[in-house]
Amino acid sequence: MRILVANAxxxxxxxxxxxxxxxxxAGPGSAIIPATPRFGAAAISTRAENIVAGHALLExxxxxxxxxxAVVLAVSHDTALEAARQIMPCPVIGMTExxxxxxxxxxxxxxxxxxxxxxTYRELVARHGLSTRLAALEGLPATPQEAVADPxxxxxxxxxxxxxxxxxxxDSVILGGAALAGMAARLSAxxxxxxxIACAVKLAEAMVGLALPRPSAGSLAPPQxxxxxxxxxxxxxxxxxx
Length: 242
What we know:
Blueprint: E1 2-7, H1 12-25, E2 31-35, H2 47-64, E3 70-74, H3 81-87, E4 92-94, H4 95-106, E5 110-115, H5 119-127, E6 134-140, H6 144-149, H7 151-167, E7 172-176, E8 193-195, H8 196-210, H9 233-238
């Protein structure tokens, strides 16, 4: 099984961290294929950057269409998730959605800690229909680049944040950020810590095993006969334009 771990940021160090976490979680028959987009933000932190990243990510996925068995979106905003599911001929798993779904099986309510602001994560949890299961959110005063350059400092901050989330009723805590991939194993916590990459890889393996048919109707049916311009030839084909 070939699983594409697609970063939506352009920072190669974050791609490498996600690939390492994915390989640690993957079963013996799964090969992890890491990939980084050719353009976009070094680390997504604004709504505008997320839109740009969506285009970059779809072009990246289009280049791999038909060559991989599943896709893990290694971006905690679950950037372009529904669009990717519509155009790709294989399961596509968002790392934060995967962690939220696992959290719902690990306890009644979950917390989420991320780097920077939290409002877009509150909206993301709501979009996944899980607001009533969210106990609390916390944003750390650190950037993804700082998490890569000084992980020990960020890990100390994470442990303090996890304790506060547990005090607010979290039965598990999601580490919300691609730059936080792999950190859960090094942290002490009284509740399960959920790594979005690990959760997404395991769910990707399960989805491939289920062999569900691709929809031919509904909102995620593949596009057909669309007119597009200015995108890569591979993406144009998946958009039904060629």
